[in-house]
Amino acid sequence: MDLKGLRLNNLSGFYGGLFKVWGLLRKERPECCGSRFWLLREPVVRGSRFVCGVGPSLQQRLCEERILTLGQVVEVCGPRLDNAAGLASRLSLRSVRVVSLLLQSWRQQLSQSELALIAAHCNGLKSPNDNDSFPEKMTQ
Questions:
Q1: Measuring CA to CA, which residue among 89, 88, 49 is closest to residue 70?
Q2: Cβ–Cβ contacts within 10 Å for residue 28, how many?
Q3: How far apart, in Å, do the first and last CA atoms of the chain sit?
Q4: In sequence order, which residues have a C-beta less than 8 Å from that of residue 126 and are 6 or more positions away?
Q5: CA–CA dist 107, 119 (Å, integer)
Q6: Partners of 90 in the beta sheet?
Q7: Contact between residue 82 and residue 122 where contact means Cβ atoms under 8 Å apart
Q8: For the whole model, what pTM was predicted?
Q9: Distance CA 27, CA 16 (A)
Q10: Residue 100 and residue 85: Cα distance in Å, rounded?
Q11: Residue 116 CB coordination number (10 Å)
Q12: Which residues of the chain form beta strands (DSSP E)?
């Protein structure tokens, strides 16, 4: 979780301290997610695994349109994350090029096995298993 964009001064002392301590921990993610359920629920904004390097205004538009997870992006853009025009339209953006660069960046951050999981999900071969355990590897 990226705490840079959050305003902690409005929180109670307990929660403000909690977020400060969280910022001190070093968090690691597994290289590849083996669970389709958790992969589709991976957040795409606010310090997620997917770097949104195109600026805070696009992150804000994603939040306003409630496109917050990879699964929601896949619903709009398709299994190959290649429908930049569809996402740009949904976000009411004129620049398809910026959205295309964002989608290209996200595709590069996914492994081949994760892309295969997404394709299998979109082709209806298998539905996500909500009993999958949460991905492990979180260290200090």
A1: 49
A2: 9
A3: 14
A4: 36, 120
A5: 13
A6: none
A7: no
A8: 0.67
A9: 19
A10: 8
A11: 13
A12: none
| 19, 11 Cβ separation under 8 angstroms | yes
Residue 34, C-beta contacts closer than 8 angstroms, at least 6 positions apart: 113, 135
Q: Collapsing DSSP states into helix, strand and coil, what is residue 69?
A: strand
pLDDT tens for residues 4-57?
A: 666 667 778 888 788 778 777 766 555 555 677 788 888 888 766 777 666 778
d(C-alpha 86, C-alpha 94), whole Å: 11
What does the block give as tokens for 57? 């205004």
Determine the length of the chain.
Answer: 140
Q: Which two tokens stand for residue 41?
A: 């629920």
What does the block give as tokens for 30? 């597994």
138: tokens are 């979180």
